[in-house]
Design brief:
The protein is an alpha/beta fold and about 300 residues long. The protein is built from eleven helices and ten strands. The chain is globular and about 55 Å long.
Length: about 300
């Protein structure tokens, strides 16, 4: 049984921990906040039980959940076969964590980042062994999204890259190999360039978020529209990714207006706060924003 340390118990970290546990791994979920860990474990329990009830999990929920352990430190890196960092999209924070993981983890343990925009080479520079650092960029909600980008930094060893691809497949996911370490990798560069134009269109009053999302589904075959994706991921997360992209010289992929920044300041973070580009009822149903009362 492989042992996996997931660092960060937010939306993405909890999802990664869940799919690793469902795949039979022993999982240590680490966060500095006991409250975040408690919230994450409660969410994983709810999700696993729902999936089991639909026949989408092979084992009983208690068996899957029994493979999960909360941790308030990085000490478990010393016994991990895999380490996956999934903290906020802040380069300095990630580098600090990677430096500590590099000190604690055995030399043969791959150190992966779930970063969605920061080049792996930059994060690997905080370690003494950059050849074992790679990107494993999951998409959320992780239990339902099949894609994982596997990113090779400038110094990532070929065998580590291959192990990453095999590990992703062992989780029941589809690996998209990214062999050139550029900001945003592949899918987020496409998404953010689209999102930039969508934000401009609603800012100019040409179409509403709901109309654009519907158009993307019916006209281009998207299963989820760009504003739905943003609300699901969290507009605070989208803002951090956008800021990281801009700092890396990719301004052309970031919305030209400050709309998302203003929404975050107002607490409109998306589904998790009940309001974003859409409103959300207490039972989680998405409803259009009332444009007559207030614009997004």
């Amino acid at each position: 049984m492989e042992k996996v340390l997931v660092v960060g118990a937010g939306f993405m970290g909890a999802g990664i921990a869940q799919v690793c546990a469902q795949a039979g791994c022993r999982v240590f979920l680490s966060d500095t906040s006991a409250e975040a860990l408690e919230r994450a474990l409660a969410g994983i329990k709810w999700s696993v039980e729902k999936l089991a009830g639909k026949g989408m999990v092979a084992e009983a929920p208690e068996i899957v959940l029994g493979r999960l352990s909360p941790e308030q430190g990085l000490q478990r890196a010393a016994e991990a076969d895999w380490v996956i960092e999934a903290v906020l999209e802040k380069e300095d924070l990630k580098k600090e964590i990677f430096a500590e993981l590099d000190r604690l983890a055995p030399g043969g343990t791959p150190l992966a980042s779930n970063t969605s925009s920061i080049p792996i080479t930059r994060l690997a520079s905080a370690t003494r062994r950059p050849e074992r650092v790679l990107g494993l960029h999951f998409f959320g909600p992780v239990p339902f999204m099949a894609l994982v980008e596997v990113i090779q930094g400038e110094k990532t060893a070929e065998d580590i890259f291959d192990r990453g691809t095999a590990f992703v497949r062992s989780l029941g996911k589809w690996p998209l190999p990214v062999r050139r370490d550029i900001p945003g990798f592949v899918i987020n560069r496409i998404l953010f360039s689209t999102f930039r134009e969508c934000v401009a269109l609603i800012g100019e009053g040409i179409a509403s978020p709901e109309e654009i999302d519907t158009g993307m589904r019916l006209g281009l075959g998207w299963t989820v529209g760009p504003f739905e994706i943003a609300d699901n991921a969290g507009l605070d997360t989208f803002l951090l990714v956008g800021q990281a992209m801009k700092a890396l010289g990719e301004e052309h992929l970031v919305p030209g207006s400050d709309l998302v920044e203003r929404m975050v300041r107002e607490g409109r973070l998306g589904r998790k706060t009940g309001k974003g580009f859409y409103r959300y009822t207490e039972d989680g149903k998405r409803v259009p924003w009332d444009a007559d009362k207030e614009k997004p």
